[in-house]
């Protein structure tokens, strides 16, 4: 089938049209240790998908297999319709990679570095625009080996998006950035998302996942344990609410899946109909995430 002929509905090729990444039964071992264990994952075209998980859970390993820079031991992987283990230069041009920071540097300036790598792309983002997008205009003439950690991270992000990739891999992109730089990075990713770029990112910052991601997936011990939009993750865990109030001046707290019934009882029992200090809270993304990874399996191994 050629790229232009429409795939019949319901076929694998038709489904691939709206799927950027499809992973089935992915396995990766180091020696006799299995670090990715039968992992399934699907990232739709145009979405920002965030992978969360504790240190050592297997996020980077998974992402590197999808980038085509690490071998797998089992499973099926399709990225932009091809197996990254066999894909060539043309496929690579359609992806952008911002790996975990290496801390390396060189004697070229920021601008020289961007101009050097621009030659590898068919339609690179103009250097001035790129510098602006990542907030490095003021550092354009600084040598890379003299950049701060956060500035270096911005340069790596610039190199990842320079070729206007269809699919961008971001491995802990904002580690080392100050809060202002993180915010402007979020704006950059939002701009990419608005232009239809698919983004797969790993992060330890739950506010980043909540802000940017269409869906988040939680990996513990090499397995994907849940996938959902950030405000729906852990639906079961979220059903439970914590009700707090003051009784005779003393704080009281009850955790219940049916807060409405408790509120009715509290109001009925109050002579004035008022319940002092009353609050009802449901678990947020962070609470849910911490519960998910709190199992022995979820700990760093
Ligand atoms: N080249 C390697 N050789 C042996 N073990 C490795 C290698 N690379 C990673 N590992 C191990 O594989 C496991 C998964 O590592 P990985 O880097 O994928 O985790 P991660 O979820 O990205 O963690 P972090 O959040 O700390 O970046 C870890 O236990 C790690 O020590």
Automatic annotation (TrEMBL):
PROSITE patterns: ABC_TRANSPORTER_1, ABC_TRANSPORTER_2. It is a peripheral membrane protein. CDD domains: ABC_DR_subfamily_A. It is found in: Cell membrane. Keywords: Antibiotic resistance, ATP-binding, Nucleotide-binding, Transport. InterPro entries: AAA+_ATPase (IPR003593), ABC_transporter-like_ATP-bd (IPR003439), ABC_transporter-like_CS (IPR017871), ABC_transporter_ATP-binding (IPR050763), P-loop_NTPase (IPR027417). SMART domains: AAA. GO terms for molecular function: ATP binding. Residues 21-246 form the ABC transporter domain. The keyword Electron transport does not apply. The keyword Nucleotidyltransferase does not apply. Belongs to the ABC transporter superfamily. This is ABC transporter ATP-binding protein. It comes from Geodermatophilus arenarius.
